[in-house]
Design goal:
heterodimer, A: alpha/beta, Glutaredoxin, five-stranded mixed beta sheet, 7 helices, about 15% strand, elongated, disordered N terminus, B: alpha+beta, Four Helix Bundle (Hemerythrin (Met), subunit A), 5 domains, six-stranded antiparallel beta sheet, 19 helices, about 65% helix, disordered C terminus
Amino acid sequence: MSEHADTATGSMPSRASLFIPLAVFLVILALLWRGFSLGDPHALPSALLNQPLPEFALPVLHEPGRVVGSEAMHGEPFLLNVWATWCPTCRAEHAELARIAEEYGVPIFGINYKDNPAEARRWLARYGDPYVFSVVDADGSLGIDLGVYGAPETFLVDAEGVIRYKRIGAVDRRVWDTKLGPLLAELRDAS
Amino acid sequence: MIPELGHFALALALGFAILLATLPIAGTFTGRLVWMRSGGSLAAGMFAFLLLSYICLTWSFLADDFSVAYVAQNSNSLLPVYYKVSAVWGAHEGSFLLWTLIMAGWTVAVAVRSKGLPLDMLARVLGVMGMVSIGFILFMLLTSNPFDRLLPMSPSDGSDLNPQLQDFGLIVHPPMLYVGYVGFSVAFAFAIAALMSGRLDAAWARWSRPWTNVAWAFLTVGIALGSWWAYYELGWGGWWFWDAVENASFMPWLVGTALIHSLAVTEKRGVFRSWTVLLAIATFSLVLLGAFIVRSGVLTSVHAFAVDPERGAYIMAFLLLVVGGSLALYAFRAPVMRADAQYDGLSREVLLLVNNVLLVVATAAVLLGTLYPLLYEAMTGGDKISVGPPYFNAVFVPLMLLLLVAMAAGPLARWKRTSAKELVRNLGRIAVASVVLGVLLPLVFTGALDLWAVVAVALAAWITLSLVQDTLSRVAHKGDWPSRLAAIPKLGAGYAGMWIAHIGIAVSVIGIAMVVVYSDERDVRMTPGDTVDVGGWTFRFDGIRPAEGPNWTADEGVVTVLKNGRERMTLLPQKRHYPVRGMVMTQAAINPRFTRDLYVALGEPLGGQAWAVRVHYKPFVRWIWLGAILMAFGGVIAAVDKRYRRLAERAVERRRIASTGDAPLAEGTS
C-alpha cells in the first residue's frame, strides 16, 4: 500500500482527483433518474391533449349500415380504446377493460383498428364485449388523426369530447388505479 | 412444460452465478485453493443452464407455442423457420436472454483460455463476471421473463415478428453487437480484479489486451451491420442517424478504441495505468448505460423496444451498484498518478494520449447530445425536445479530423522520445504527397474540386502513406530490398493488426466523404414510361406488379436502369404489406458495386398509376462498411499475436517449476 503512503504525504490532490469520475457518474445518474421519474415514458407528448376528438364518420362494427361520428359518444366522460384481433396485448388488457366497465360504469368505446370486421365480431363474441360500440377503422385513418402508434391505446375523453389523457400500451390495474381512475373521478366531479 | 423448464433453468443459472460471484473471491481471502479453482466449473454450469433456457425459448418459437406471451407477440405460424429462430432475439426479453448467454460464453472462454493467469487473478476475474451475470439474470427473472404465459386466453396465432426485423441484417446484427458489448465485461473484470488485488501492472494490461481487441472487433462489425441494415431496410438511404440507440452502441466503441490504445501504452511502457483502468470501467459502464437507454424507454427512439418503468428502475439500481461501486473502488484503490517522467513531450506515449483525449472528448460530446433531451426535460419541467444530426456533426467531425491527423504520427513516433526534426522529416514528404493526391484524385475522377472530398482523400492518403513509411523504416536496416520485404511479415501480428485497422479507418473516411459529397438523390413522381436521370444513370419506371411472400404481399415496382441509352439492369423495389401486423414495409432495390450503389425505393401510390419513387446514386457507400470490416479484422489479427500465447506458456512453465517446489501460489498472493 505504498500509494496510500504517497497520498498521506502530500499528493492529496491526486487521490481526490480519482473521485472525479465517480462524481461525474453520479451527476449523470441523477439526471437519468430525474428524466426517468419525471413521467411515465408512455405519456408521450400528444398534440391532441386537451383538443377535441378529431371528426370522423365510420361504420359501427355490429351494425355495418350505421355510420357514426364522435358526437355519438358525448354526454359523459368516456374511454376510447384502440384494439384489434391481431394484437395479443389487447387480449391481455381485455379483462381489465371489462372490469372497469362493470365496476365503474364508465362507457368504453372501441376503435377496431386495421382489422377484419368479421374476425373482430367473432373475437368479441368469444372474449366478451365491454364496448358500448366499436367503430371500424379498417384503413387506420382515424388512427392517423389520433396519432396512434400501435394497439392498444386508450384515450380518456371528457363529456364535451375533449381528450384529457392518452395511454400508449395496455391498461392494467396499476394504470387504472394511478392514472385513468383518478382522472376520470376528477372529470366526473367537474361535470 | 418446455417454457417452464426454460424458466427453471434460468433460476438454476442464477444459482450458479451467485456461487461464481462469491466462492472464488472468498477463496482468495481465505486462501482455499479449491474455492479459487471452482470458478471454471461454476462458469460452465451457469453457461449450460442459460443455454438450456435459450434452447427452450427457441423450441417454443419453433413449436408455435403461442401460450408464451413473448412468442405470441413476436412470431406467427406463417413465419419462415429461420425467422422463427432469429425472432428469439427480436424483442426485449429474448434479446436479453441472448445477451446473458453470450456473457456466460465470455466467462467460460476466460476460464478456458487462462493458462497463464495466476490462480487468484483468475478467481477474481471470474467472480466479477459472475457478479455482473447475477444482475443480468435477476433482471430477466424479475422484470423481463421471456417464458411468461398468456393463460388461460392463449391466442390461436401470434402477432408476427416486426416486419422491419424479418431480414438477414437482423439475424446477424444483434448477436454481433452483444458479443462486442458484453465482451467488454472481460476488460472490465480484469480491471476490477487488478484494483482488488492492487496489482495494476504491465501483466494485467497484457492479459486484457487480446480480450479487449476481440470484443472491440465484434462491436465494430455489429455497428457496421446495424448501419448497413438501416441503409437497405428502412428505405431512407441513410447509413447513420445519430439516433439515441445508435449512439448507445457508438459510445462504448469510441471509449473502447481509446482503451485499446491505452492498454498498448500500459503494456509496453507501464504508464497511464490509472487512466487505462478508468477507460476499462468507462467502456463497460457505457455498455450498461446503453442498455439502460435502449431498454428503459427513458429516451424515445425509432429502435427503442421494451418501454417499461420497472425495468428502467431496475437498470438504474444496477448501474448505481456496478458503475458506482467500480468507480468508488477506483477512487480508493487506483495508483495515484505519479510523475512518470519516463517519456518526453513528443513521444508515442504522448501521441496516444492525444488519441485518448480526443476519443474521450468525442464520447462526451455524443453522451451530452444523447442525454441533452433529458437535461432539457428536467430543467423545463417536462418539455421534450430532440437533438439531431446538426449538433453531432458540428462537434464530432472537427474532433475526428484532429484524430485522423494525429493518427498518422502515432506509429511513426518512438516510445519515450522522438526528435521533432526526425518526425517532421518523415512526415513532411508524406504531408506534401497527401495534399497533392487529395487535390488530384477528385479532380481527375470528377473534374471538380470539393473541399470535403479533398480533405478526406488527403487524410486517407496521409494515414496510408505514413503506415507504408513506418513499415519501410522498420525494415530499413535489412540491407537490400528482397531481404527488407522478407522481413515485413516478421514485424508480428500485433503490428499487422494495427496496420489493417488503420487502413480500415482510411477506407471508411473515403466512403463517408464520397457519399456525403457526391451522392445524388431524387424523390420523383413517376407514371409508367417516365424516366429520371440520377448520377449519370437513367431510371425508367415500367409500372407496378403484384408479388407475394410467405407472410406478405407486395406491390413491386419495375425500374429499368439505362446507361448511354442501353438497358443495363432491372431493379425491383417493393412495398410489402404484412397482414398480421397490418404493417407496410419498404424494401429498397439496390444494385451494389465496389465504387457505387444504385438504390431505388417505392414511396406512396399517388393515384392512377403514379407512384412516388426515390432514386439514389451512392458512390463508395460500401467503403464505409468495408472499412469497418478491415478494422475488425485488424483487431482480431492483433489479438492472436503469438506473443500472448508465448507469454501464457512461459507463465505455465514457471508455475510448474514453482509447484514442484510446493509453492502453488508463487505468483498468487499479494
